[in-house]
Every structure is written in structure tokens, then in C-alpha cells.
Specification:
The complex is a heterodimer of chains A (121) and B (113).
Chain A lengths: L2 E5 L2 E3 L5 E8 L8 E6 L5 E7 L6 E3 L7 E6 L4 E6 L8 E8 L8 E4 L3 E5 L2
Parallel strand pairs in A: 2-11
Antiparallel strand pairs in A: 1-3, 3-8, 4-5, 4-9, 5-6, 7-8, 9-10, 9-11
Chain B lengths: L3 E2 L4 E4 L5 E7 L4 E2 L4 E2 L1 E6 L6 E5 L3 E2 L7 E6 L2 E6 L8 E7 L6 E2 L3 E5 L1
Parallel strand pairs in B: 2-13
Antiparallel strand pairs in B: 1-3, 3-10, 4-5, 6-7, 6-11, 7-8, 9-10, 11-12, 11-13
Classes of the chains: A mainly beta (121), B mainly beta (113).
Chain lengths: 121, 113
């Protein structure tokens, strides 16, 4: 069974930073592209970015470029999202997700339960 | 970025009746070289993470009941629930993956009439 467990969310002031982590199990982590998708409270879904199976390619939505960094450690079956210079509008549940296809064309076939990031003074 | 529009924020359907959810994209999602539409549908039940229902506009994900079907091509797509069940009450999102960034529609809430 595929399992994705996020951690690291919390309350942070505008301009602050967090590192979100995702522990993956139940599949060969190193074979899959992985993404982060977020959902503001009561709102829709927004893809944040993804990373190739070997970490050699990364893509981001424009609104987070230069502030967020996706990384992975295939030896630890872990995915990370470093979020810097946080803004109030970054408040959301952040989902760790597995991509269905081995390409940058993202379709998510598995989702974690999410971790809530709240940006507020 | 490709804009995905779901025209209905919500719809109410009687149990056992058909539910039809529409989605339009601002750009063509049909890739001519493989004749595939880069369109997926997700279901999000209250308090849960989303779940993949359909990709390539009409391919059901493993384990998805066959009352769910997807259709359409180019810029106009439809998710149909042929006979609504109580457990189908949820938000439904379309998503394009033709170009980066992948983008989602605003969601359509399906309720029981």
C-alpha cells in the first residue's frame, strides 16, 4: 500500500521559513516523479511543483519560484519542500503526492493527508 | 497558464440519477502526436485528500467504479456519474496536464437532491 506522510507544517510569521517533509513507503520511491500540491482553506487545488525521480529536474508554479525548493533523498524515501519568504497567501494544506507518469506531465495518483501551513502575524 | 473552468460550482442530483459535470480549458488539450487529451478528474470527499478518478480524459483509474466516466476532447470535457450514490457526495476537480504548470478547475460540488 502506498503511504505518504507529511510533517513540518505549523504557524509561521510572514517572511518566515519552514521545511516540510514527506515519508514515502509502499512503492519504489526512486522510480517516481513526486509533486507538492496545496489547498488554501476552503479553496481549490494548486500545484506547487515537482521533481524528477532522480532529482535532476524540478519545476515550480510561478508564484513560488525563488522562494520554494523541492528536494528528495531517495536513500531515505523522503521528499522535502523548503518554503522561504512566506506570505499570508501561502497559507494552505500542503499535500505530498506521487505522479502517475514518469514525466513532467503531472497526474497525481496518490496523495498524503497533508500538513497545514499557516502564515500569520 | 491554461485556465480550467468548471461552470457549475455545485449541482444537486437525486439518488440513482445521472450527474454531469462540465470542464472547459482555455487551450486545446489534445496532443496530435498521440491523439490523447491531457485531462484528469479528481474526487475530494469532505475532510479527505483528493482521489484520482480519470486520466487521458476517459481512462478510469484502477478501482474506480464504472458509474464514473469521462468524455470530451480538445477544450470541452465532461465527468458523468451514471447513477448517483450517497458516497459520491464530494467536490470534483478537473485538471490539465498538457503544459506546465498543471492547473485545476475551481471544483464542482455534487450534493443529493
Amino acid at each position: 500500500e502506498v503511504r505518504l506522510v507529511e510533517s513540518g507544517g505549523g504557524l509561521v510569521q510572514p517572511g518566515g521559513s519552514l521545511r516540510l517533509s514527506c515519508a514515502a513507503s509502499g512503492f519504489t520511491f526512486s522510480s517516481y516523479w513526486m509533486s507538492w500540491v496545496r489547498q488554501a482553506p476552503g479553496k481549490g487545488l494548486e500545484w506547487v511543483g515537482n521533481i524528477k525521480s532522480d532529482g535532476s529536474e524540478k519545476y515550480y508554479v510561478d508564484s513560488v519560484k525563488g522562494r520554494f525548493t523541492i528536494s528528495r533523498d531517495n536513500a531515505k524515501n523522503s521528499l522535502y519542500l523548503q518554503v522561504n519568504s512566506l506570505r499570508v497567501e501561502d497559507t494552505a494544506i500542503y499535500y505530498c503526492t506521487r505522479d502517475l507518469f514518469a514525466s513532467s506531465n503531472t497526474v497525481v495518483d496518490n496523495w498524503g493527508q497533508g500538513t497545514l501551513v499557516t502564515v500569520s502575524s | 497558464d491554461v485556465v480550467m473552468t468548471q461552470s457549475s460550482d455545485s449541482l444537486a442530483v437525486s439518488l440513482g440519477e445521472r450527474a454531469t459535470i462540465s470542464c472547459k480549458s482555455s487551450q486545446n488539450l489534445l496532443y496530435s502526436s498521440n491523439n490523447r487529451n491531457y485531462l484528469a478528474w479528481y474526487q475530494q470527499k469532505p475532510g479527505q485528500s483528493p482521489k484520482l478518478l480519470i486520466y487521458w480524459a476517459s481512462t478510469r483509474e484502477s478501482g474506480v467504479p464504472d458509474r464514473f466516466s469521462g468524455s470530451g476532447s480538445g477544450t470541452d470535457f465532461t465527468l458523468t456519474i451514471s447513477s448517483l450514490q450517497a458516497e459520491d457526495v464530494a467536490l470534483y476537480y478537473c485538471q490539465q496536464y498538457y503544459s506546465t504548470p498543471p492547473t485545476f478547475g475551481g471544483g464542482t460540488r455534487v450534493e443529493i437532491k
